[in-house]
Write a structure and sequence with these properties.
This protein is an all-alpha fold and 179 residues long. Among the domains are: 50-142, no CATH class; 148-179. Helix content is 63%, strand content 0%. The longest helix is centred in the C-terminal third of the chain and has 29 residues, at 150-178.
Amino acid sequence: MSRRKHKPDPNQMEFDWEFPSKLEAVLEETSVLRDQVSVGPPKAQRTENEFELCVTIAAGIKKAVDKSGLSREQLVDGVNAYFGRSDEEAEKEERMCRKPLSIHMLNNYMSKPADYPIPAYYLFAIHHVTDSLDPVRVFVRAEGARIATGKEIRQMALGKLEEHIAEIKKLKKEIKGRR
């Protein structure tokens, strides 16, 4: 027997004793996600009436405005700028736009949505001005779906890639086993 003391390599990593529990957590999480994928999204929600929808859309718009920190006057100015609306343009013979949105009409749309339902084309401008998808989430949620952000789409693509890699590994094992 040698009397030399064994010195471990300083670059060698130590065993992570927490690894088995971390691995179990990841495997369990993966199983839960697979179950959710197989079940699919919840079914579309049916609303009681069209007035309820008007109120829901107005609430989404209010949420977008609140998150943006804009006043209603700034929102009106942004919507009019988005559509290129002005009194001069609306008065021309070759009309290219409607009359500008007024703060009073916006207040009616927001405060009395059942009496003054907001036209759908305003949602484009409101989204652009507030940089929020909250008004549109109302439509998406009603169908049992969700809006995916760019980050979530990249994560889904990575998940699909990992699924394909796992399938390739499985096929490789099958092929090697047949030899």
